[in-house]
Amino acid sequence: MKKVNSEERRETASALLQLLKEAKSIRWQLALGCFLSVLLIGCAVTAPKLVGSLVQALIDYFPIRETAGYSVTEVILPGLLVLLAIYAARGLISYFKMLLLNKAVSRYFTCTIRIKLSDKIQRLPVRYVDNTPVGDILSRMTDDVSHIGNSLHEVIDTIMGGFLQIAAITVMLLLENWLLAILVVVFTPLSIWLSAVIASKSEASFHRMFQESGKLYAVVEEAYTNYDTTKAYNLEEDCARRHAEINKRQIAEESRASFLSSIVQPIITTSNALAYIAINLVGGWLIVKHGVSVGVVVTMVLYARQFSEPLQQIANGLSTLQQAKAAARRVVGILNLPEEAPIPAELPGSGDGSVEFRHVDFSYSADTPLIRDFSVRVERGQHIAIVGPTGAGKTTLVNLLMRFYDVDFGEILLGGRDMAEYSRASTRDCFAMVLQDTWLFGGTIAENVAFGRPNATREEIVRACDEAYCDHFIRTLPQGYDTVVGSDTATISGGQKQLLTIARALLADREFLILDEATSNVDTRTEILIQKAMDKLMKDKTCFIIAHRLSTIVDADLILVIRNGQIVEQGTHRELLERRGFYHQIYTSQYAI
Questions:
Q1: 100-133 exposure pattern, b = at least 16 Cβ within 10 A, e = fewer
Q2: In 215-325, beta strands by DSSP E
Q3: Residues 316, 92: Cα–Cα separation, whole Å
Q4: What is the tens place of the pLDDT at every residue in 123-149?
Q5: Residue 325: which of 444, 447, 199 has the closest Cα?
Q6: How many CB atoms lie within 10 A of CB 244?
Q7: For a Cys-Cys bond, which of 74, 310, 361, 366 suits 70, CB 3.0-4.6 Å?
């Protein structure tokens, strides 16, 4: 257990150090914030000295007021004006400091961290996004980064406005009266030590709290993303139960962390109250027995009251620091993930237009083999259909072609060139794809269709939509091609969304085309029309068609029958039926009466 805790401490220290390096972009703002804090400390330690002097001046004035020849106003007015100026300056400096730090932290630091997280995720393997709940990623990018950003304020206030203010007040106390100074500061080391020990124990609870928060985000995101399914199957109670269980655990961890953090401030308050009582009693005794001036005692009492402010800042800072440490581990956990190795070489072209799998092995999990010794060559212009039962590895071939995953063994050649030797972006530029699950981005219909070709003209967009048989329904919408849609848009049907994604692929006009159940969400008449448009699109292009509905691939040049990650049969539709093998079983199971 001690080893684990030691490893966690090293991990936390490393995470904080890395995030401090990220703060280089705002180092000048932080330096200015520190300077303003020093000015605030100067105002804080000067004011009690002035008040004590004014009190002593009044005490000295009244016994001689009849013979002094000047009024009490003349005695205290200059000091009061200086005091007023000090407090006004303190208020303005405090305002500008918080304004500066708020802008620096929110506009630069937290914004930069979130941008880096977003860029990092773009460079991570698809495997990470597939295996990580979206809600957990959102929690790290929003809540955790906010906690880290907010902690910068506490660090500045704790280090500059806390420890330095204590040091400055201690010096002033010693200059006034060493005995009273000891009474004030004697409790400080003990209270700070106790605060640090208690606050450190809350870090583990904060870490678990953030983990549960990520799970809570995931449950909420899942429930509302699939809201129709939740309602259709009456799963509201189940979602509520899961939400309540996670929420209960989060509340327990947050309560423990908050309890441990909240103990710190009462310790500081008690320590300061004891010192305050002691200095009043001893100060009164010194005035009566040793002739210490009232002004000195008043000054010491005011410094004693001021002592509580930096101590409470330190207490709050230690509590916030534990949250920041827990959040930093989760944020840096993403930033330190291994990225996909960058490949500078750009694919010069598709070569002869062929695609070849050579003895390819692949599995999503090392203990569950999927594709084993897979080999096939596809020539330019061939329409290749891939069929097989669920889990056979059909969609996995698409993932490998698109470089979403890299092969464990073997090669995939594009135009005679090994894809692994070229950048993923340049190989993906050769492919257009239409997936079974449609996805529209927030924007107009025209922008969605042009997603794969941003520089397309409106005429080209309309032509692509016309070929995909969606121009008619688009023109019936109130704003036509300028209608704003998204993934959850209810104004267009699922089949219409699929047509838009097909139009997107038509407009992209890539050399290779991948259709993964592309016609699964359209009716039979539309399927026939789309198939005719696809025949024009796929002329002289290599096309991979993954389908369960065998009626859509009867005209394919070659059908690959996949079973358990291997090709068990290949040939044309007629040839495979005549063999009366596995393909024949699949076909007859769909169309036998």
A1: bbeebbeeebbebbbeebeeebeebeeebeeebe
A2: none
A3: 23
A4: 888 888 888 877 778 778 887 888 777
A5: 199
A6: 10
A7: 74
3-state secondary structure of 65: helix
CB–CB of 362/407 below 8 Å? Answer: yes
Instruction: Note the pLDDT tens digit of each residue in 438-463.
Output: 778 878 889 888 887 888 899 999 98
Residue in 474, 526, 478, 534 with CA at minimum distance from that of residue 500:
474
Cα gap 246→88, rounded to integer Å: 49
Average pLDDT of the chain, as a whole number: 78
Cα(284)–Cα(332) distance, rounded to whole angstroms? 56
DSSP, residue by residue, 514-582: EEESTTTTS-HHHHHHHHHHHHHHTTTSEEEEE-S-GGGSTT-SEEEEEETTEEEEEE-HHHHHHHTSH
DSSP 8-state symbol, 23: G
Min mean pLDDT across 40-54, 92-106, 534-548 is at 534-548
What does each C-alpha distance from 100 to 24, 88, 95, 104, 321 come to in angstroms?
16, 18, 9, 6, 21
Looking at residue 88, what is its pLDDT? 92
Q: Hey, what amino acid is at 4?
A: V
Instruction: Provide the CB-side half-sphere exposure for 279 (13 A, CA).
Output: 31
Q: Which domains does the chain have, with CATH numbers?
A: 13-219+252-335 (1.20.1560.10), 355-591 (3.40.50.300)
Residue of 484, 482, 488 lying closest to 443 (CA atoms): 484
Is pLDDT above 70 for 69?
Answer: no
Based on its alpha-carbon atoms, the radius of gyration of the chain, rounded to whole angstroms, reads 36
pTM of full prediction above 0.90? no
Q: Detail the DSSP E strand segments found in 272-387.
A: 355-362, 371-378, 383-387
The strand pair at 417-418 and 409-414 is best described as antiparallel
Is the pLDDT reported for residue 514 higher than 80?
yes
Top-confidence residue, 163 or 5: 163
The two three-digit tokens of residue 91, written as one number: 């208020």
Residues 508, 432 contacting (CB under 8 angstroms): yes
570 sits in the region (left: phi over 0; alpha: psi -120 to 50; else beta) called beta
Read off φ and ψ for residue 559, nearest 5 degrees: -115, 125
| Contact criterion met (CB below 8 Å) for 295 and 53 | yes
% of the chain at pLDDT higher than 70: 79
Please state, in angstroms and rounded to a whole number, the distance separating the CA atoms of residues 97 and 94: 5
Separation of alpha carbons 105 and 23, rounded Å: 9
Please name the helix (run of DSSP H) or strand (run of DSSP E) that holds residue 244, with its range, or none. Answer: helix 236-290
- Three-state DSSP at 122 gives helix
Tens-digit pLDDT profile for residues 377-415: 888 888 888 888 877 778 888 888 888 888 889 999 988
In this predicted model, what pLDDT tens digit does every residue of 318-339 receive, in sequence order?
666 767 777 788 888 888 888 8
